[in-house]
Every structure is written in C-alpha cells, then in structure tokens.
C-alpha cells in the first residue's frame, strides 16, 4: 500500500506541474491550449539535445528548455493568439489555432529531433528501499522534489510578485483589471510565456526518467485537460489537486483493478465522466468556467 | 548532297545518337514500389525505419546502375504515403498507389490499417507486405498480403522454448498496451506459453500507450514474480521505460519481447538496466551481418544521419519484391505471376553470412506461402549493442 | 428559398453527381473517388458537430459515435446477417439513443467543460470496444461483406456492390447522396422554428429558458441528431474498409471533426462541408511534400486562422453575423 501511495504521489507531482501551465493560460485568456503537450515535448527535446548531444550539465539543459519555451510562448501569444482573439467572433475559434500550432510543433519536432524515443542517462544512481515497503529510485525522488519545489515557487510567484498579482486580477475579471490599470496585453504575454515555460520545464525534468518522443504531445495535452477539469478549469489550486488526484487514481486503480485487465482505464475514464457530469465545475472551479 | 545538307544530317545524327546514348545511360526504366505506413505521430519510428530502409536500398541500387530484371536495368523509385496510423488514411494511400500503377506496396504497419486496405489491394491487383500479424490477412481466401516479418506467434514460442531449456524458466507474465496489436499479441503469446507448459502468472495488466510513468503499471506484475516478463507488442518508445520500471522495482528475472528494438534507444532510456533484454532483430549483429548488410547500414547512416536497428528486419520486403520479379519478369505487372513464382522462389540472402536463403514460407501458420522467410534472429541487449542469442527459421 | 439559392443548389448537385464522375473519367484519377467519398462521409459527421456548435456546445466526441455506428453496422451484418441497408439507419438510431442517455447529464455543461467530457467520451468508447466480447475486442471485425442488393417490394433499387464493376463509384454516389440528404436536413433545421430556438440557445441560454423555451429538450434533440449523423458516417466507412477496429475512430478523428467546422465557418450551414473538403483533400494533395507535409499543412491552418478567423465562408459573408 505504501508503494502505491508513493507511486501516486510521484505521478501526481509531475501531473500537477503539467496542469499548472495549462490552467494558467486558460485562466488568463480562456484559451484551451491544445499545443501544451507539444510544448512539453519540445522542452524535453531541448534538454535532451543540451545534455546528451552537447554534453552539458543537466541544469543547463533545464534552463535552456525554460528559456526557449518561454520565448516561444511569448511569440505565440503576441503574433498568433492576440490577433485571432481580436478578430474572431467566437472565442472557440482559438481552438483551431491552438490545434494548428500543435500540428506545427509536431512537424517541427519530427524534422528537428527525429522520430526516435530519446532519453538522457540517469542523473542519480541507486534505489531507495525501505524494507521492501517503498521502493523508489533516487532520481525519481529528486525529480519529485524538484517538481514540488517548482509548484511551490510558482504559487509564491503568483501570490507575492507584482506580475503574479496582476495575472490573478486578470484571471478574475479581465475588464475590471484593465480599468484598474493592469496592462492586459503585457500580462497576457507574460502569462503565456510562463505557461509555456512550465511545460518546457516538466519536459526537461521528465526526460531523465521517462524519456521523450514526438508522439507524447497530444496525449499529454489530453491528460492535462482532464486534470484541470477535475480540479476546476482556470483555478491554480484546482490544477494541483487535479494532478494529484489523477496520479492517485491511476496508481490505486491500476493495482486494484489489475486482475480485470483491459477495463482499468475504462473504469478510470468512465468514473471521471460521471464525476464531471455531476460536478461540472470540478472540485474548486467557478461554475460554467 | 551538298555540303550544307551533309553538315546538317551529320549534326542531326550526332545529336540523335547522343540523345539515344544518354537516354540509355540516364533513363533506365523506373520500377515504382510503394510504401503506405505511419511516419508521423507516436508510432513514427515504425514506418520511418521502413521507409528509410527502402529509400536507402533504392538509392544504392540506382547508384550502381539499376536492378537487373530480365536483362533490363531498372531504377527503383519509392513512392511513400504517410497514413498517420489511421486506417481510413491507409485506404487513401493504397488508392494513390493504385493510381500510380504500383503493384507492390510495403506496409501498413498496424492491424487495423492492414485489414482496411485489403479491399483496395484486391480490387487493384496490389500485393502488399504488412507488418501486422492477424492470420486472417494471410489465410485463404485472402491472397494479396504477405507478412513482411516473423509473427509473434512464431517467434514467441521459439524464445520461450529456448529460455525453458537454457534458463529453466517456469513462470511467465505478460504486459501489453491497450491497443489492438499489443493485445492480440499478448493473447497469442499467452496461449503459446501455456501450450509449452509454462505457467502464466499474469496476463491481464495493460497500459495506455501514452503512459509517462510505468511504475504503477508494473507493480502488480512484479508482485507475481515471474521468471520471464514478456512485453507484448511493445513499441520501441515504451520498451526502455517498462524495463527500467521493472528493474527499479527489484525484478531480477528475464525480460523479452517479440518486436524489433533499437539498441541506441534502449541505451539512452534504460542504460545498464536493459542488459539481458531479449528481442527479435535482423541480421546486423556482427556475427551474422554480411558485407552487404554492413554497406547497407553505412549508406543508411550516411543518408539519414543515424541508423535504426529496427531497419534490419525491414530491409527484406523490398529485396523480396525485386528478387521475385527478377526471377519472373512477367510479375512486374502481373501479380498472379508473382504468386505462382512465390511457391518455388529461392535466392541467396545477401544480408547474412553463410548460405541463408530468401524464400516464401508460412504454410504451417497460414496454409499458404504468404510470409517472407527472414531469419528469426533473437538478440540480447548488452551495453549498447545487440548480441545474437540464437537463430531459427520459420516454416 | 430564393431563385439564386435554387440555382446554387442545382449547380452543386450537378457538380457532385455529374461533373465530378465525368472529370474523374476524363482525367483518369480514380483515386480521387475514395478521397472524395471520405470527404463526403466526414462532412456528414462534421455536420453533426456543427449542429452542436449551433446550440453553443463544443463537441469533440463525434469520433465516439462514428465508432459506435460502425460497430453497430458491423455486428449486425456479421453476427445477425442483417442487410447493410437496414444497418445504416439502425446505426444512426442506436447512436441517437445512446447520445440521449449520455446527453441527459452532460448537456447541462457548457464551454470547455462540455468539450472536455466529450473528448473523454471518445477514449471511453474505444476502450469499451476493446473490452466488450460482442465487438471481438482487440481483434476487430474483419471480412465484412460488401453492401448487398436493395430491393423494395420486389423492385431492385440498388444492385449488389460485390457484383458492380466499379464499387468505388458506387460508394462515392452513396456517400454523396447521404451528404446531400444530411445537409438538406441541416438546412431545413436551421431555417425552421427549431433552428431559431437553437440560435437563441447559442446566444443566451438563461434568456431562452425564461421565455419558455424547453432548453433541455432542445439540447437533447440537437445532440441526438448530431450523433445520428456521426453513426451514419461511421457505418459507411465500415462498409468501405470491410473491417473495423477499436482504433478505427479515435480522439484525433474527434478533434478533426471539430476543426473541419472551424475552418469552414461556424456561422454557415455549408461550413463543415467546405472545411472537411479543404482540410482532408488538402492533406492528400500535400503528400507530394513528403516529410514537409505536416509542416505545410499546419502552417496553412495557422495562416488561415490569422486571415479568416471566422472560417473560409466568412469571405462571402457581406451581411456579417450568422444567417
């Protein structure tokens, strides 16, 4: 049982970090960023290139991922989302744009980094073994701790920095924030850059453990959507809760339902649908998003 | 004839003969071979290694002046179509092949695509070489599909038997992705293991193809502590992660799969933990590779920057098509002639040392010869390279 | 219906039923039949998605109904021996009934919440198809017979597809006929009292409800019609490929159905048809670009969004606002 909880906790930490960036972008601009998973993959490949190909330390790779993705996010917001949002009659139209960007990144990743699964060597060797009750490799523990530290850092940033406060104001009420003198364009850009950066960071962190391949983008986006739905779209605490809940559900569900085989995921997804049908705003969301 | 007209006619003749000669040099007739498979998205590695091995081989043939079929040298052109692993697209791809007048197509890579293109292939006289295992594709009344590799229900039993005799394994567990191909392979693998007298301790655990952390998936399997863990139909992307999770959870038994893998991917994804991992490969291990295989790997690497070990098993389909047509030039446009030739066809295997032969097999599994005979090379991974465990033949 | 409208419809019918087959016969591009058949079938599916957009719901679950419809048709044909022509409406009806059961709880949701739950639905349907015994699980259903002859009261209406010399043309005509019927129905719905009510839902649900519109009923009806279309599209695809697997329609297909609607324009009945044509046909034509295919395709999609964020048909829209 301890093992199951430990697995779920680790999985939850990585999920929560993925969901954070997505929910941030959603809360600021009401954009469901289909390309979030692709950004995650891109970040992973950047770290891979820096660490495995150029032979630089892991931390350099992480920084490179964060910076490149932040720039990419800012550019995407300014040159793509902003004009489309301004011109389109229905805000759902951004979904097509986001999907287009997702396809574009998929194509770019294939051309730039190739079709193979990639990974970097373990950054820490050894396995933590508590009496065979919890077995957890040290690199997983390290990545889990880093993920939680990043989550904590992000929350602190949103709570106490000027930019964070401005973004929270924007998320709460765009018009009111604008009237209060918040530079909407500027903070939308920063928010998008921050969201993309988080995606890139998770990619960089996880490339050491699960590796990366170009097919992971789409499914990662969809998983992240489910997490923010569980927690409530556009709410930061909700995204964190959603990530941990999905992680636990998978860990516990896979063990409990192992004997029934093929229906494990069916049960997880079906219960998710039932939950959302009866509590559409998720755990902590505003009703109707 | 005055001088002027003489000059004219000589010039004309010179130009004409030059044109003829250059045509004979540069313009070999072209033989088009198709490829319909997945070269983008999550399973891109499967189709890409296929397409690239075909393109590398075609470029090689064209460079040395073409392929000799019935006394004429033919250039080989590969026409590729990316079906995005979508059976509906695969049909469109097969239609495009028919439109281009192509009669021999390699692919698709997965079960659903292979089944979906069957009507088109049969209507348009196309022989295709899927990398999918359902027997219904190859058993009568179907007759246009030829299995391009060794099926898991053929390689699985051979591996299990070898391990029973050499490592004394008694229990086996299966784990598979919840998709058609892996699940079918798991079921046939488990049935084969039972038939051999192995005890199947776990064959119900499945995982989503997009899993990023396999530890929770692996946990219940490892608890059954099998002697052998089979990763059924595992994709090259998932294999290193599954191995790593199993080993990190303290699993010490053997791990095997019946699909082809890439050593570099295993090295990066699992490192030393992948040592001893058993998979099915082609003939590029040093003990088996012929000079032709080494040259192929060189050319592939030069052309695309990096070799993929999966291509070892995938270089054969094109070779079979060309060699069979060469054995009976009528087959170039007449697939019935191709089918007749298949029954008796035999040629030396250029990629393997020794006297290995290319021929069509499958009578035991399908009741007709609808499978290329490739050597069943079983490899074990060791420190970044594959080592050959044993070689067997499928009949 | 004005005279220009009638003339337009006449030209359209002439093009799809006469001009296209003639042009294919002249040019010899027989492969276009399948591509255009796919376009016709997929546009039936996206017509359904468009209708859910019309009541203000983003539907990313049409792939689920296409898969269900396909399985209903395949199972009825192979296990019960029902004629394809009977399975076609049954597949649609089955999907409509299921969609009412699913729609009852989830149609209360709006915006991204509805979108996400339908996205999950596609995956749930795939996993169900993998797990159920009747669908033959992972092994799929293969070797499904071609559509047989259709005779009504002894009058042969449609010949047996297996005996037709050119089944490609037959499937094309079938798909295009279904497409024309679908869009005629869609046009009728939009320009009826029902369509008027749907528009009021799209604009303001509370207001519509307060003036006595039975919103729940209306939403269910629109969603059921939408799913009916999805089921039909799936069933015909099964007849063409003569096989079905749990992966025959997946999340990607659901997302594509939605994208087709966006590209064509959400405010136009013909939008989904045009969008499907552009994106699907465009992808096929781009296969000459080889490894740059996806890059060009996606770049074109992004460019399209930047230039025409309200869909291609908004080019011709002088009046502004939905018709």
From TrEMBL, chain A:
InterPro entries: ABC_BtuC-like (IPR037294), ABC_transp_permease (IPR001851), BCAA_transport_permease (IPR052157)
Protein's GO biological process: amino acid transport
Principal subcellular localization: membrane
GO molecular function: transmembrane transporter activity
Localisation: Cell membrane
Protein name: Amino acid/amide ABC transporter membrane protein 1, HAAT family
Topology with respect to the bilayer: Multi-pass membrane protein
Key words of the record: Amino-acid transport, Cell membrane, Membrane, Transmembrane, Transmembrane helix, Transport
Family: Belongs to the binding-protein-dependent transport system permease family. LivHM subfamily.
Transmembrane segments: 12-32, 62-81, 93-113, 141-160, 189-212, 224-245, 257-278
Organism: Pseudorhodobacter antarcticus
PANTHER family tied to this protein: ABC TRANSPORTER PERMEASE PROTEIN, BRANCHED-CHAIN AMINO ACID TRANSPORT SYSTEM PERMEASE PROTEIN LIVH
Superkingdom to which the source organism belongs: Bacteria
UniProt keyword Transmembrane, yes or no: yes
Automatic annotation (TrEMBL), chain B:
BP term (GO), one: amino acid transport
Keyword Transport: yes
Keyword field: Amino-acid transport, Signal, Transport
Family that this chain belongs to: Belongs to the leucine-binding protein family.
Residue ranges occupied by any Leucine-binding protein domain in the UniProt entry: 31-350
Keyword Nucleotidyltransferase among UniProt keywords: no
Signal peptide: 1-26
Protein name: Amino acid/amide ABC transporter substrate-binding protein, HAAT family
Source species of the chain: Pseudorhodobacter antarcticus
InterPro entries given in the database record: BCAA_transport, Leu-bd, Leu_Ile_Val-bd, Peripla_BP_I
Automatic annotation (TrEMBL), chain C:
Pfam families: BPD_transp_2 (PF02653)
Keywords assigned by UniProt, alphabetized: Cell membrane, Membrane, Transmembrane, Transmembrane helix
Keyword Transmembrane: yes
Subcellular location: Cell membrane
GO cellular component, one term: plasma membrane
Topology term for the membrane: Multi-pass membrane protein
GO molecular function, one term: branched-chain amino acid transmembrane transporter activity
Record's protein name: Amino acid/amide ABC transporter membrane protein 2, HAAT family
UniProt keyword Membrane present: yes
Record lineage: Bacteria, Pseudomonadati, Pseudomonadota, Alphaproteobacteria, Rhodobacterales
Residue intervals passing through the bilayer: 6-26, 33-54, 60-77, 84-106, 112-132, 144-164, 170-190, 220-245, 257-282, 294-316
Main location: membrane
